[in-house]
Each structure stands twice: as C-alpha cells, then as structure tokens.
Amino acid sequence: MSEPIRDDAPRAEAGSGEAFRFLGRLRERLPKPNGDFRIPWGGVRRVFLVLLLIAGGVLLWRGAQRSFQAVAPGHVGVCVNRFTGSLATLEPGTHFRPPALYEIHAVRISDQLLSADVGLFSVTTKEGVIAKITVQARWAIDRKQLLTKWAALPPQPARELVAPVLFAAFRAVAPRYEVTKLISDKREELASLAAVSARERLAESGVVLKEVLIGDLVLPPEFEKGRIAMVDEVQATERLEVTLQRKAKEVEETRLTAQAQKARQVEEAEASAAQHVIQARGEADAMKHILELKTKQIQQKKLEAEAERESIVERAHAAAEASKIQTLADVDRRKAMADAEAYATRVTAQADFEKLEREAVLVTANPLLIPKTFADRLSDRVQVILTPSIGGEQFTGEVFKRVANGQAPLAPPPPSTAVAVNKKSN
Description:
3-stranded antiparallel sheet, 14% strand
C-alpha cells in the first residue's frame, strides 16, 4: 500500500478567515494518489494570496469611490447618519460620506414649475358653471426649513402637495366670481387670492409658493355657445352704436355743410346785390344822357306816325274809290251772267221737253224699250233676260203644251222680244 501524503503545510491562522478553512476542507476531500506524488501547496498559497490582495484592493477602491458622493447644482444633500439618525445639509459639490455610515438624499431647492397635467383644475363659479382652468405655478422648497420639514415632504411634492393645495385654494375662491368676469378681467384677481391662501398652507410644509398664474379657461360647450351668442349680440349692439354715431356725425356734417352753403349763398347774394347796385348806378348815370336821345326819338316817331297816318288815309280813300268801281263792275258782270244762265236754262228745258215727247212717242210704239233701258242702267256684272209679259197660268199652260208635243219647255225668244245684256267693266 502506498503511504498517504503528509500535510507539511502549517495550519492556517485564525486571521486567514473562511477562505483558508474552505481550502483545507477541499484538500481533505481530494483523492490521495499512491506513490511519491506531492502537490506544491506553497506556490498555490502564494498565488491565492496575491489574488486575495488584488480583490481586497479593488473592493477598498470601490468602497472609497462610493464614499465620495456628489450633490448636483440647484440641489441640497440631506445627509442622514445611519447609526444616530442625525441630519445635516450638504452644499452642491463632492463630499466624503461612506455609504455604510451615511445616506444622502438629493433635494431640489431651485424654482420648479407646476406641469400642465397636474395643474388642470375644475372649479365652480358663482352661477354654478363648472369651468376648467390651467394653473401655472412657480414654487421651491424652503432651504431654511428643509431639515425640520424634510421628514414630512412627500416623494413628489408637485403632485402630492403643491397641486392639491392649489386646487383647494381655487375651489374655495372661485365661487365668488361670475364666469363673464373671469373671462374678461378677473383672472389675475382670482389667481392672487388663491395664491395668498395656498402660500400660507404650503409654508407650513416648507414649500415657498412664488407665483401663480391662470392659463387657459375652458367652459362647458353649452355655456360656451351661449357666451358666443351673447358676444355676437354685444358686438351687434356695438356695431349699431358705431353706426348711430357715424349717422350722427353725418347729420352734423350735413348741418354744417348746409350752414356753410347758406352763408356762401348769403355772401353771394350780398355780392350780387352790391353788383346790381353798382350797375343800377351806372345805368342811372347813363340814362341821364339817354333820356335826351329818347325824347328826340319819340318826337321823331310822332312825326313819322303822323306822316304815315296821313298816307294811310289817302291810300284808304283811293282804295275805297277803286273798290266802289270794282263793285259796280262786278254787279254788271253778274247781271250779264245771270241773264246768260237764264237763257241757257230756258233753251235746255225746251230741249229736254222735246226729247221727252219723242221718247214718250217711241215707248208708246215699242213697250219693250222700258226694260231695255232699265237693263242698260244696271251694273255691268248683272245679266238681265227679257221675256214676254204673259200671266202665270198662261205661261204654265204653254209649258205643258210644249212638253206634250215633245218640244222644249221654253222656246228661244225672238230677237224682238228677248234681249240679254252682259257688260263687264274694264
């Protein structure tokens, strides 16, 4: 049998720690080969010690590096002792505070703005209208009260402290105002009153509220429609007032224009009257010289009129004499003409009488001349047929006799008993 391997290494010291004990147990569990084979435990221990020293150095460096903790500008570090619980403030910069002994919390002390999603509040106005307002607030944590109020500060002061306090302040102040006033000129007043109330409550928690403003004001759709209608009505009223003022100015302008025109007409009339007076004076002066000439002209016309009258009287006497002579000549001529006409009438009547006597003798001898004469005097478009003057029964009997004998009912008239006249005018 092979001799067991002896352990020539000394036991690890108590200061080596748990690592040496682990290696010892691992060595005991390893299988022990036969023969003279030996493990060089001395070199292994030296390498392990070097590695252990390097790991210790790295751990020491990382611990020292974590002990230097930085505070960003605009922040204050609240240093809490893990064993005593005491608090201290650290200025912006790098400070040596081992994490095993101290815990540092960075707190922002510069001004902060309330975000839009957190600053959107719904408040009730005096009329009971629910309006949504967007509040813009600038706030900061009070550095003087940081250590005393730090334990009471929530993790998110803007969302968990500033926003609720502002909402409570606006909800308490908003019912004092009407919607129309808030829209027009009461926003700053509402913001100032709510800021005063909220500033006192936030000061108790170590927060300084510096400025509060109201951004957008959103009304319900129904109220917005009514407000727009009212605004339109107000604008219409204002336009009407402007129109009335413009009309009043136009009336005033017309009145002033009429007065100016009246004054101009008065001045023109006065100037025209003065001009007429001057003309009249000139005419009067000229008339003095003209009157003498007119007098002479009148005398001359009188003399001319007398001469003309005398010539007219002489011409009238001559015309009367000539007319008398002409009248006597006309009477003699008419008398001669009347005698000639009477003689012609007697001769014409004698000729007509003799013609009638001859026609009467001719008609007595030939009775058919009367119808012929009548036919000649008819219109040229009328055709007249002359037949023998026989009675109705005699004519009918004659017709039957001719029909019974096989002859034509009416025989053509003889040339001496029937005459057809057909004249056509040109």
